[in-house]
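note to self: dont lose this again. the chain is below, predicted strucutre after it. 246 aa total, dont forget to put it in the shared folder this time
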Amino acid sequence: MSLDSNVISKETLIRSKVHEMILNGELVPGDKLPSENELAENYGAKRIDARNALVQLEKMGIVYGRQGVGRFVNEPLPAVEFLITGTTSFSEKMKEQGIPYESRVIYADYADDKEQVQYRKVLELNEDVKIFKVSRLRIVNGVPCAIHISYIREDMFPHIYEEKDNLTSVYTYFKTSGYEQLRSRDRILSAQFPTLEEMKLLTCSELVPLLVFETDTYDKETNDCLERVKILYRSDLFKHQLSDED
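---
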């Protein structure tokens, strides 16, 4: 599909053309990009348009700049092969592949008032049921790559506040609490750009899309819903596969 320079902006045209050169191998990691002046001249644009296009490519992690030297094609970050399932823990998936990882709890407390209302509705709970929120930062190969948020029914785990130091792996916590057979249901995939807080946690720019995976975790034996899960993955660090589950 060709780009019509009469319809799109010069900035978008330059960004897209440079990106296309990288994707098709005309420019490879380590190669120096044409200068802002060269790009502006080649595409009949102003220098500011070329500069803005290259800045956007930097924010996308595709190129990097060296002061006084120019911009170069970035080496792609290694992508982790990742099978999306709702009932296998992140740590188990990383162990299976022999990948160094860390799970860091960044929040373990009751959800705020807004989220209490939101997730009671999502989980179809009575107003007297409290929602306990656990957020973990997933770090792979030393790089923050995902934020895993669990919204857990307190009525199913009445001692969860006292046991919040044991929530590095929520699935392990569920199993030690007697829920050994788990399944996921109502899985949803979507995409969004990161908020300021998410950019800070994931050390990424606003132009790195996040893949959002949401699902509910059920106990197979009782068919009780235990939690709603929301995971935000850096899209540049994973190659996702989807699996069917019974």
